């Protein structure tokens, strides 16, 4: 399996986007949870406050971490039908079977035309 890790150190830092789950809590507070990192949460008395606390929490976490892109090459798998390809090539009855199939298809086509 081939893998590669891409890291880019540019002067321009792209903005990252995250999906956030906003939940109203039974005690009247609001909890914001980062869906990609469920342990990264923020809570507050309003949705805005919860999101701000979540953002601060994530920024603090990213100060001591980094984000990389991991590319994994898919494993090369043989087509499952390949083990059957050509299995009847030396069968002396193969031509006869093909002719029978073609005759049956012609008959089906004729039957369809008369309907």
Automatic annotation (TrEMBL):
It comes from the Bacteria. InterPro entries: TTHA1013/TTHA0281-like (IPR035069). This is HicB-like antitoxin of toxin-antitoxin system domain-containing protein.
């Amino acid at each position: 399996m081939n893998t590669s890790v891409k890291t880019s150190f540019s002067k321009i830092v792209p903005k990252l986007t995250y999906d956030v789950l906003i939940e109203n809590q039974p005690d009247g507070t609001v909890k914001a949870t980062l869906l990609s990192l469920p342990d990264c949460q923020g809570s507050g008395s309003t949705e805005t406050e919860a999101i701000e606390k979540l953002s601060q929490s994530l920024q603090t976490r990213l100060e001591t971490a980094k984000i990389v892109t991991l590319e994994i090459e898919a494993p090369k798998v043989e087509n499952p039908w390949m083990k059957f390809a050509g299995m009847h090539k030396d069968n002396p009855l193969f031509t006869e079977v093909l002719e029978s199939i073609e005759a049956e298809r012609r008959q089906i086509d004729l039957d369809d035309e008369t309907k």
